[in-house]
């Protein structure tokens, strides 16, 4: 809730005119408690995982030779029932784990210093904070994921996420509840170290969730805007991790490729890419 009664009060307090984004933010948030604003995280999570995988689901139902060019494991065909089962698995993790966790962690988000008031952050502040959040999370997640492939951890916890050797977008968050909580702490590392505005935090969660759906979609499109992000692994990188399955010691980082390159855990993947390239060249001859 903002500490101003009117827009004029906010203008006087900031000592300047509000930008259009700040006026809109004032109108949206002035009468909402911080608790309600922090609860938006669960709402975004639900909406994104319900809507964003739908185009991939339609593609899967319309499978043809043209579409198969972009399917990472073209031998795998999912029926409508398979995909509805994937959505059921999303609800299985959302309702008893994500929803209560996000609702009960609202005070934590406030305590780590995420602010909800005015002024809004500048575009450069948002950009640099997002970059820091993604780099920190990628690094933390790399090690947690690598650890989760040790025998005990894998058998007790991580194998739930590996139920799908050819994943679909709906099952991106499908995991053991303990893995979800541990993974969530990696997501919070960046905002804890460099706390920012809730708008930046929302953007971070939305982009992270969209990235997770894309990397589990089973499709790789050459025109995807994510291809322009340096070191971005994308669907092809993470799909390989699922394809190899529990015994894999490859492609642990969730977003970028450099951790696996630096620590030598992408050798199998690179060998496969090299093999595919050579095969394509031979076909062209
Ligand atoms: Zn794994
Ligand atoms: Zn996965």
TrEMBL record:
Signal peptide: none
Keywords assigned: Membrane, Oxidoreductase, Transmembrane, Transmembrane helix
Subcellular location field: Membrane
Fatty acid hydroxylase domain ranges (all copies): 131-265
Domain of life from the UniProt record: Eukaryota
GO terms, molecular function: C-4 methylsterol oxidase activity; iron ion binding
Keyword Transmembrane: yes
Pfam families: FA_hydroxylase
EC number, as in UniProt: 1.14.18.9
InterPro entries reported for this sequence: Fatty_acid_hydroxylase, Sterol_Desaturase_Related
GO cellular component: membrane
UniProt keyword annotation of Membrane present: yes
Membrane-crossing residue ranges in chain numbering: 35-59, 90-114, 126-144
Chief site of localization: membrane
GO biological process, one term: lipid biosynthetic process
UniProt family annotation: Belongs to the sterol desaturase family.
Protein name, UniProt field: C-4 sterol methyl oxidase
Species the sequence originates in: Handroanthus impetiginosus
């Amino acid at each position: 809730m903002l500490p101003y009664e009117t827009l004029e009060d906010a203008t006087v307090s900031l000592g300047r005119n509000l930008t259009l984004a700040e006026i809109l933010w004032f109108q949206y948030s002035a009468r909402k408690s911080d608790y309600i604003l922090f609860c938006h995280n669960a709402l975004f999570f639900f909406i994104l995982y319900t809507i964003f995988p739908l185009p991939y689901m339609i593609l899967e139902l319309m499978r043809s030779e043209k579409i198969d060019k972009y399917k990472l494991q073209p031998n795998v065909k999912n029926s409508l029932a398979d995909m509805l089962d994937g959505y059921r698995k999303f609800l299985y993790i959302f309702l008893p784990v994500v929803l209560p966790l996000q609702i009960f962690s609202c005070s934590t988000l406030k305590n780590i210093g995420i602010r909800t008031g005015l002024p809004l952050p500048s575009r450069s502040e948002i950009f640099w904070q997002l970059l820091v959040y993604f780099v920190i999370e990628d690094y933390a997640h790399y090690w947690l994921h690598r650890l989760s492939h040790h025998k005990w951890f894998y058998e007790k916890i991580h194998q739930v996420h590996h139920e799908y050797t050819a994943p679909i977008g709906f099952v991106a968050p499908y995991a053991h509840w303990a893995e979800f909580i541990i993974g969530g702490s990696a997501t919070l590392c960046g905002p804890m170290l460099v706390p920012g505005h809730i708008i930046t935090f929302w953007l971070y969660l939305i982009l992270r969730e969209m990235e997770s759906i894309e990397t589990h979609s089973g499709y790789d499109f050459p025109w995807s805007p994510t291809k322009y992000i340096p070191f971005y692994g994308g669907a092809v990188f993470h799909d390989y991790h699922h394809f190899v399955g529990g015994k894999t010691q490859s492609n642990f980082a969730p977003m970028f490729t450099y951790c696996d390159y630096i620590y030598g855990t992408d050798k199998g993947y690179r060998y496969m890419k090299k093999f595919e390239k050579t095969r394509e060249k031979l076909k062209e001859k």
